Amino acid sequence: MTAAVRRRPGPRVFLALARDRLPRFLDDLAELVGVDSGSHSPDGVNRVAALLATRLDALGFDVERVPLPDGADGQRFGDALLARKAGSLTAARGGRRVLLLGHMDTVFEDGTAEKRPFTVRGGRAHGPGVSDDKGGLLTGLLALDLLRRAGVDAYREVVLLATPDEEIGSPASRPLTERVARQSDVALALECARENGDLVCARKGVADFRITVTGTAAHAGIEPERGANAALAAAHLVVALQALNGRWDGVTVNVGVIRAGTRANIVCPEAELRVEVRSATASGIDAARAALEAAASRPVVAGTRARVEQLDFCPPLEPSPGVRRLLATARALGAELGVPVRATATGGVGDANFVAGVGTPVLDGLGPVGGADHTPQEWLDVTTVRHRAALLAALVAQLGDDRA
User: Fold this and answer.
1) Interval 351-380: pLDDT, tens
2) Hey, which of 160, 247, 336, 364 would disulfide with 352, CB 3.0 to 4.6 Å?
């Protein structure tokens, strides 16, 4: 005889449970925003991790602080925070592992929290990191609290990962994110919703390249004809690469850095270009890479040559069938809450890109509505917190249980 599946709470149950939680949310947000936690401030990031760990421990999670290796230049990073809570279902009984993903670091320098302290005016909260991503992280914690209060444990496991270095490309935490993502069935990223309330179903991928142009040095006054000017070759290459823009839909090519020569009286023997390619698809990045290599193989200046190296690659978050299913689920639950759920694509990258890169379906932008990220005007619409937390809790409840 098959055991009956317990009816899961609807989104409005979670909304009702969230009715009295906003004051505590704002108190916690004020505390987090009051901590300077720039990517290059590991002590500040660790203070945020400690505050979150206390809240997660109270929610019944097993919490681990994960030290990360120093960067190649000796840069220190704060710890990552990895929290897990097992549910009542096994994989064989339809239980799924749901990953919530956010980041603790901001783009702001130490001292910013004192200069621009947390405030709430006219339904909007302001302060460094209030939207990106401290408000999103706390909405994740609020959703987990709503699940606990509703008695929902019909999932295999709920995992929350908070990273310390997202704003600089996650150089230290990326392997951890990819490992946890591979172990998860679905993921929900806690970046805040766009200013119009849209979720994010697609993010461009990014590839960084270094092109080294080599020529021959010579005295610029006595025998310039014996030289091969790498700076001139690089200049022609810049023009050729920038002309690639518009060749493919959704692909941009930008030569952002040019370095060449040491003295004005020497024919330049070496130049370096740093190039960024962004694309909505992996195939677009592949096409642009091939075009860079083709352009580099045809030097305009005789006696020069160019070598292309790919330095880094962040995969795109593409609207795959799995992502579209997540979005459809969010739309259905949002309709029950009276929250229209739409989704958009963005050119910015985040940790959700790495989740998508290992094949795990991920939906982003599940925090409250916010905007003006990375600026002194950054804001979070506190009137959207309850509904967005209820939507997130309902998503976890539904995605964690694959029996119905």
Assistant:
1) 999 999 999 999 999 999 999 999 999 999
2) 364
In a 13 Å sphere around the CA of 333, the CA atoms on its Cβ side amount to 28
Query: Residue 362: phi, psi to the nearest 5?
Result: -140, 140
Do 303 and 176 lie in one domain? The reply is: no
Instruction: Collect all residues with Cβ–Cβ distance below 8 Å to 51 and sequence separation of at least 6.
Output: 28, 31, 32, 35
Residues in the chain, total: 404
Q: How many domains does the chain have?
A: 2
Closest CA to 137 of 394, 367, 353: 367
pTM exceeds 0.85, yes or no = yes
Same domain as 348, residue 287: no
Q: Is residue 383 included in any domain, yes or no?
A: yes
Q: Are residues 323 and 365 in the same domain?
A: yes
Separation between Cα atoms, residue 294 and residue 395, nearest integer Å: 47
Backbone angles phi, psi at 15, to 5 degrees: -60, -40
